[in-house]
Amino acid sequence: YPSWKRTLARRTRESQMKRFCRAQAIQRRLEEIEVTFRELEQQGTKLEKLLRDENESVADQQTQWTNQLLYLVQKKNNLMTEESDLMIAVQELKLEEQQCQLDEKLRSYMNKEDALKTPEDEKAEQEILKQLVEVVNKRNILIQLQEEKRLSEL
Predict the structure, then answer these.
(1) Number of H helices and number of E strands within the chain?
(2) What is the rounded CA–CA span in Å between residue 106 and residue 118?
(3) DSSP single-letter state for residue 113
(4) pTM across the whole model
(5) C-beta of residue 83 within 8 angstroms of C-beta of residue 33
């Protein structure tokens, strides 16, 4: 087993583990965001009830509650933006994994000597190459989307 194949296999495993760890971190953060959403909803509901029920309360108190409500809305919007970014990251991870798998398949076909390749092998190699280009294009679209989003936020 040549050393370059061992190195390649090791690097593939390492990149898979990195993607797995990133996916776990994203999943944890999405769960945290969901919990925070619920808490913000509860706080917002309480503030709305206070604003509706306490018509005779001091104007300063109503202003304070309104400001708190606006702060909660702003916080929720920020979380929604973060959640959207994380969902894009999830899609990117999936495409990255798909690209690695296709790379591996393509490499196995390309390592085969041309004289030993059957017409089916050549057809499969072309199909994998086509799929690989599609995945790369999808990843490029996601990156462009993230960049446009970043620029619009500035």
Answers:
(1) 3, 0
(2) 15
(3) -
(4) 0.79
(5) yes
